[in-house]
Amino acid sequence: MVFSATSADSLPGSPASVRTRLSARMLCLYRLLSAFYLLCLSTLALGQPTVLTLDGSEAGISLQQHAYYLRDSQGMFGIDDVRARAADFRPARERRDLNFSYTRDHVWLRIDIQSAAEEPRTWVLEMRYASLDRVSLFNIGADGVLQQHAGDTLPYQQRSIGHRNPVFTIELAPGEKRSVYLLAHSEGSLTLDNQLWNTAAFHEQSQMTYVLLAIYFGMLLALASYNLMLFAVLGERSFVLYVCFVISFGIGVLAINGLGAQYLWPNLGEIGNRILPFFLSLSATIGILFAQSFLDTARRAEGLNRFLSIWAWVAMTATLITLVADGQRALQLMSVIGLFTTLVLFVTGILCAMRRIPGSLIFVCAWLMLLTGGMLLALRNFSVIPSNFFTVNAMQIGSAMEMLLLSLGLAARFNELKRLKESAQRQALKSQKQVLVSLLQQEKILEQRVTERTEALAQANARLELLAMQDPLTGLANRTALTQHLQQAMPRTERRNELLALVLIDLDSFKAINDELGHDTGDQVLEQVAARLTACARETDLVARLGGDEFILISEGILDQDDALRLGERLLDALSLPVSLSDGSISIGASIGISLTNGVQPDIETLMRHADQAMYQRKRSGRNGVVLYNPLADSPFSPGKLRER
After folding, report:
1. CATH classification of 479-644, choosing from 3.50.50.60, 3.30.70.270, 3.40.50.720, 3.40.50.1100?
2. pTM of the entire structure?
3. Looking at the domain covering 52-204, what would its CATH class be?
4. 165-190, pLDDT tens digit by residue?
5. Residues 6+ apart with CB under 8 A from 539
6. Cα separation of 175 and 160, whole Å?
7. Rounded distance, CA 328 to CA 330, Å?
């Protein structure tokens, strides 16, 4: 038997009991306040910009969790405006994804990146939706603002990096921090899904994607060619409609995934935006005509056939409207027409299946695949469902399965015709293997031609760049190359605490050579002068032709004024030698003006003017000599720095 004793303090009304309840309430209040304080701290932390730190081991990173976005409904903000509106940026992680649907807003993204790698690395930022009209990247760091541009309305040659998607490079030195701003706007769905890759991973992923796309379009090409051959043999209308459907749909898909703007219409710009809505809407129209022929609705379901004819006119009208409507309305109309057409054809297939029309079950399954893919893409375009690899490529996946099933349906129809046209069937079967072999051969030839074309374009571009920087007669650098060289040489001279000499050479009496001996002789003289100047110059020097008989030599690492004068005298000695011609030789002289700079003062324009003044001083003093510009003298030229021959 157990006895328990209860003290007076433990009774409900006792002072100890009251103190106990009070302490419990205080403890509860303390815990609530602590939780609220931690919640506030976490909220403030979420509002602070995060910096994405890269150590070089990452292969690919989705930037949504690290990005901030700002919508510019008027499209008026510049980079300076958005940098001043840092507080208006919203964390992208608050959104389900970065699909802004059909909008005319300009959207800015900001990502702060810092390198923790031990060596400089190059990263590739890829916008994973090819149908963006214009994307600009502003890469801000200690070296200022670096810009890159991409988008399917930008001529392909003007894109910062040649790729079907908007792609940009970001170079990070060890410990370097940069702020990256992306400005995007598009008439279509504004989807800003992006990925940051290291270079190797990007190339590997890009090659794999191109392989998959090549397989997809290879399949379309094979199906179209095969059924075109069947049409040629059998003359059945369904086959040619199927081929037209595959071609129009394939061109639309080329526009969606960026291959069209990369290879087929790289310079159409804004006009290229019409290709996508026009051809996908056209494929909807042809799809209706194909359904009427394939299901033989004119004979088996007259009422359904009349409805399909009306809807075909509606789809064709919408197709023509896409050519004149503004880009965004055309794309929205395309999405609506495509979605409803697929739904109409799916219901048509069900009704025909209920009537036991041959081939209707395959037709239903085929259009169910395309309906699913089209609905997923349309819902993604309108930002109803998330944007990811599957929803972005849903149309292509669904269309591949749909076309395969339709091809099977046509094969079934072909088997039915086989009983009636046995001889034609045998010929078609023989032709099938030939077509497939021919397709494989053509594919290899096409790949070879693409490779050759790419190499030829690269060589042509290299030649054009070289020609743009060269004087066509002498092969020396021209004014453009001279300006670029000076812009790079001036900072080097300042950093090295050295002098840079600009030597201006003007040939004496060259006009008389042209007038008396002819321009051909003058050209020979200029070519030999160029060769002599090049021979006298060091590897680090630049020899350029300004035009006519004026030449310039840029020499870095000059020790002093005497060193510069010795350089001028060497040039004068080389030019004073007789010039051999086909019918003899002539002697020429040169007036040489030299100006010096430490990389800061004087600047490029003043440096050129000083050399020009020194050269003309030499001409006025009797020609064939060297003058060094000296600003400390009473006149611009010091008599002690004027040397004659």
Report:
1. 3.30.70.270
2. 0.54
3. mainly beta
4. 999 999 999 989 999 999 999 888 88
5. none
6. 25
7. 5
